[in-house]
Amino acid sequence: MGQKVITLDVLASPGCVNCALFEEFWHSIEKDWPNVTFRHIDVTTPEGQEMAQKHMIFASPGIILDGELWATGGFDKEKFVEKLKELSN
């Protein structure tokens, strides 16, 4: 039974505390999610700017799962894991 591959893009700004907290949390659970492809995207880059405009992200981090904005500015660990489970099926 193969798990669906999920993309996790985190749009982060330099010095953003919530961004660092989210990435720390992700790295603590990522071994449980081999099907998730993680990308850190700096909002100051052209790609980051484009994503911020596309998803209307005004607060960091912008957490994008499979191309859909899941959360901005903060995150709920349990809800995040629930969403990963939902997307993996």
Compact summary:
By secondary structure, the protein is of the alpha+beta class. Helix content is 38%, strand content 26%.
Question: What topology emerges from the helices and strands here?
Answer:
Elements: E1 6-12, H1 17-29, E2 36-42, H2 46-54, E3 62-65, E4 68-72, H3 77-88
Parallel strand pairs: 1-2
Antiparallel strand pairs: 1-3, 3-4
Account of the protein in words:
The protein is an alpha+beta fold and 89 residues long. The chain has a single domain (6-88), classed as Glutaredoxin (3-Layer(aba) Sandwich), CATH 3.40.30. It is built from three helices and four strands, in the order E-H-E-H-E-E-H. It has helices spanning 17-29, 46-54, 77-88; strands at 6-12, 36-42, 62-65, 68-72. Strands 2-1-3-4 form a four-stranded mixed beta sheet, sandwiched between helices. The protein is globular, with a radius of gyration of 13 Å.
Number of strands: 4
H-E order: EHEHEEH
The largest sheet, given as strand count, sense and whether it forms a barrel, is: 4 strands, mixed
Low-confidence stretches: none
In total, the number of domains comes to 1
Rounded average pLDDT: 95
Assigned CATH class:
Alpha Beta
So, the CATH homologous superfamily? Answer: Glutaredoxin
- Number of helical segments? 3
Short descriptors:
89 residues; four-stranded mixed sheet; globular; alpha+beta; 3 helices; Glutaredoxin; 4 strands
